Amino acid sequence: MRNVEKYLSAEVADQLREAIHEAGGNEVFFVGYTEEDLVTHQVEVVARGNAMAVPAVMEVAREADVVIHNHPTGDLTPSEADLAIATQLDTYRVAFYIVNNRADNIYVVVEPFEKKEVRPLDTEAIKKVLQPNGPLAKHLKGYEDRPQQVEMIDAVCQAFNEEKVATIEAGTGTGKTMAYLLPAIYWSLQNKQRVVVSTHTINLQEQLIKKDIPLLQKALGAKFEAVLVKGRGNYVCLRKVDEVESEFDLQSDDEEREELKSLIGWARNSRDGSKADLSNIPREEVWEKIAAESDTCTRSKCLHFRECFVNKARRRAARADILVANHHLLFADLALRHEIGTRSEAGVLPPYERIIFDEAQHLEDVATHYFGNRITRAGIVRILSRLHREQKLMLKGHLHSLRHRISRKRGVIPEELSQKIENEINLRLVPSINALVDLTHNTMDMVYDLIKSQAPESGNQEIKLRLLPQVKERLFVDTPLEEAVRDYVQALKLCGHDLSLLIEPVSQAQKEAKEDWTSLLIEVKAQADRLIAAADVIADVIFKHDDDHIRWLEVRPGWRGRNVVRFLSSPLDISDMMKEAVYDCYSTVVMTSATLTVEKKFDFLADRIGLQKLPEDRRVELVLPAPFDYEKQAIIGIPLDIPEPGHSAFAAELGKLVFKALAISEGRAFVLFTSYGLLNMIYNQLAESLRMIGIAALKQGNENRHELLARFRKDKTSVLFATDSFWEGVDVEGDALESVIITKLPFKVPNEPVIEARYEAVEKRGGNAFMEYAVPLAVLKFKQGFGRLIRRKTDRGSVIVFDNRIVRKNYGKRFLASLPPCHTVTGSKEEVFAALKNFFS
């Protein structure tokens, strides 16, 4: 207990008393603001005692100096919940007090923090690190002086010092990772504020963690911690391992027993418990049995709390100055905080104030995914099977684990209670789940058959049906399918509700048994909640409509007749969400990539991700060209006397053109496609002919990406036929890659639900969807493909575009205008191939 006057002004004490009195003496939460004397001189009520009080407090606490709440009993001893809150507040440097109802007694759980003075970055000092005689040059083999890198440091430092949002296009070779890492490290060390660096690809994360950051740790001579942060689902849960191992027959199916035993053995000996520590990636349905999950975590009640791999990762992250994450994890975290209004327990990320997005061209797609919803047939069946399934006359799953425990304690647990639980499981829940599994398959098959009937020519291809009002009217209003889906949604909710009712009697039984069944109860409750959430998603997708969301169904043939059915929704426009969840919440946001602009302007990006909603004085923009002499290092060839991609003769002619181009470059090429169909056709047409002239043809999909690239780099006469993911994020330097062949301009498929809806939104406001949306998207992808070629100052090669629309169509100039100045040859096939031969000779 402390002197109240040391912490609260007299006016504030009066305000506390009055607010508590108005609340009938019940619990009230306040946030307060201190002055230089560290006394609280201002408070406001943020919540009154209820289930949502703590989330409401945590939402605003980070902006305050202190959180105060009363204990109506007068006993000011902190509860376990109080200590949990205190731990979270401490990470935000927020004090925490408990007072009595008269506010004349106080318990200080966390002392107030002195006001922190923000120390701005010394931009000139940071730039000196990169000078030819600076510390980095001494530690970096092959050091190059890069003026663009220094210019980028100016922009990043400005974003940190002035709390701005920076968009920086930094061409290949500018050294952008060093240009943002240095300010991030210095800021974190000077101001004790954690910085998140988020990337899209694993390759870049590994480069940062294994190469760039260790180099800076050596060069700077400063101690700082950088940690690669992974999502919770990447870690094994030791509690689940115990559960599965102790009831192995109840939890495992015959076909997975050996794999599960191997995983259990690995989990007992693993140092970090991460899936990446495994030599072989396990099947999803097997890993799920032992994987960590937020809604099945028992937290501090877990026997493995101290050695928990997720908690160890959290502790490492909490000690780190720099967190390296991927966009998917960061947006899962941001979406959760945006949805429930709290900054706690989101992923494994501790609090952070500044964000750097590398590979920022992917932000709209990733944000669209995480601010949306999806549920699948397979996902629902897995939820149900975790509760109950039957294999070779043996009953398995969490419900049978409960039943087994009850029967073991028969005689200890009152007979009436035991019988009640067993009857509930055997007579109500098991039949209900069996019926629900059948109903799931029947309903999903109905949905599948109806969607397939809308596109009978699709064969085995995936169908994506956007649920426009007229489509819903035809399929789901006064039809047998409407009744079936409504009944199914109701059945999912009823099963979830019935499962929840089991929790109370089982809790009583565990008390009588004097055993701890908490983990099993949490598992059952989690599956109940998931069933209800699945029902809500299906009902939203099928029966709701608004102009702000895109809703659609996806179906494709599946294994053993279990056809794939997915229900999905996404926001039409993420700009408001980006503003609310990112720009308004974080003081500094830096977005960088080699491809952010169209015709050297950020307008398209700004419109897509909400940058235009920010005041101009909060934005920093910078375009930095790559430090290469493209006029000498690269040639672009565009033959004009070839069919356009829509022409029936295009595919046949393309095969001949690709073969001739590969013969000139002697392989050493990426052939980039926009669809697997055309890729397979051309590959099958050319593979044997190429082999006969000494060129090995490799195809995406024939082996994993890492092995494919390793073979390509090693065999200097090979050619790689690839699609979407090889247009970007692939770095092949030197003479292994001397030609990039772009078969078609990379326009998105216009009937994809999200693309189609965004086209319509542009047209609705009077714009031209093709010119304002389709072309800029394709330009950005085209720039990525072009960027595969020149990665170093010593690289050279050709980019060949077999789509003459880039010259013949008016919009084509936007593609060429977005590239660096290059020697470009357009004309007949003979003229282009002659120029290529001359270039390579």
Which features characterize this protein?
841 residues; alpha/beta; Cytidine Deaminase, domain 2; Rossmann fold; seven-stranded parallel beta sheet; 33 helices
Find the CATH topology of the largest domain.
Rossmann fold
CATH superfamily of the largest domain: P-loop containing nucleotide triphosphate hydrolases
User: Which ranges are low-confidence, i.e. pLDDT below 50, for 5 or more consecutive residues?
Assistant: 342-347
Mean pLDDT: 91
Domains (count): 4
**What is the architecture of the largest domain at the second tier of CATH?**
3-Layer(aba) Sandwich
Q: How big is the Rg? A: 30 Å
* Order of strands, widest sheet: 8-9-7-10-17-6-18
Topology (SSEs and partners):
Blueprint: H1 10-22, E1 28-34, E2 40-48, H2 53-61, E3 66-70, H3 80-91, E4 95-99, E5 106-110, H4 123-128, H5 135-139, H6 147-161, E6 165-170, H7 176-191, E7 195-199, H8 202-220, E8 226-228, H9 238-246, H10 248-251, H11 257-269, H12 284-287, H13 309-319, E9 322-326, H14 327-340, E10 354-357, H15 363-370, E11 373-376, H16 377-387, E12 389-391, E13 394-396, H17 398-408, H18 415-454, E14 463-466, H19 469-476, H20 480-501, H21 503-513, H22 518-543, E15 549-556, E16 564-571, H23 575-583, E17 588-593, H24 603-609, E18 619-624, H25 630-633, E19 634-639, H26 650-665, E20 669-672, H27 676-692, E21 697-699, H28 705-714, E22 719-722, E23 739-742, H29 753-764, H30 769-786, E24 797-801, H31 805-808, H32 812-817, E25 823-827, H33 829-840
Parallel strand pairs: 3-4, 6-17, 6-18, 7-9, 7-10, 8-9, 10-17, 19-24, 19-25, 20-22, 20-23, 21-22, 23-24
Antiparallel strand pairs: 1-2, 1-3, 4-5, 11-16, 12-13, 14-15, 15-16
Helix pairs in contact: 6-7, 7-8, 14-15, 14-23, 16-18, 16-22, 17-18, 18-20, 18-21, 20-22, 26-27, 26-33, 29-30
